Amino acid sequence: MSTRWKIVVAVSLILNVFLIGIGIGVLATGVRIGPVQAQPRRPSNIWLAADALPPNERLSFRQMLRERAVAVQPELKSVRLARREAAALISQPNYDPAAVEQALERARQGEMHARGELDAAFAQYLVKLSPDQRGKLAEAMVRNRPGALRAAIEGRSKPNGAPPSP
């Protein structure tokens, strides 16, 4: 066998061993090759509760929620900026707890105001629904809550005052 063929075979063996090693490493560690997919965000309880409405009301209800969400976007942007400001203040060498508290308070107040706007629009929309539709929507809202919150809403709790288990 010529020297050229010996080099080709040696390089081929080294490359194959390398590729097989990568394959075994990927299988052993469970590492994925390629971009990681972000987990989809779970829709809110009110959004999911709309499934209890008839199709035409469901579309109208969700359209109202979208419009209100768009309306509060500028406020939510200021909330994000306040949180970033708080994070920047936290990482400063001369930590100022009062300034951090103020930034977090602005973020909290903005979130509460935006949530209040959505809740008010939700309450006004309910005027258009029949009592039966409002009842179904209320049941769906409770059903879609996380376990511990749902249990608290339904009045289940442990005897010693401990929080209910999910």
Structural overview:
It is a single chain. By secondary structure, the chain is mostly helical. It has a domain at 45-143. The chain is built from seven helices and no strands. Helix 3 packs antiparallel against helix 5 (97-126) and helix 4 (73-90) packs antiparallel against helix 5 (97-126). Residues 157-166 have low confidence and may be disordered.
What is the strand and helix layout of this fold?
Blueprint: H1 3-29, H2 45-49, H3 55-71, H4 73-90, H5 97-126, H6 131-143, H7 147-153
Low-confidence stretches: 157-166
State the distance separating the first and last CA atoms. Answer: 72 Å
Given the C-alpha coordinates, what overall shape results? flat
Reported for the largest beta sheet, the result is: none
How much of the residues is beta strand, in percent? under 5%
Summed over residues and divided by their number, the pLDDT gives a mean of: 78
**What is the percent of helical residues?**
over 70%
- Contiguous helical run count: 7
Q: Over the alpha carbons, how many angstroms does the gyration radius reach?
A: 28 Å
* H/E topology pattern: HHHHHHH
Give a count of the beta strands, DSSP E runs of length 2 or more. 0
Structural class, from helix and strand content?
mainly alpha
Could you list some keywords that capture this structure?
70% helix; mainly alpha; disordered C terminus; 166 residues
In a few lines, what is going on in this structure?
By secondary structure, the chain is mostly helical.
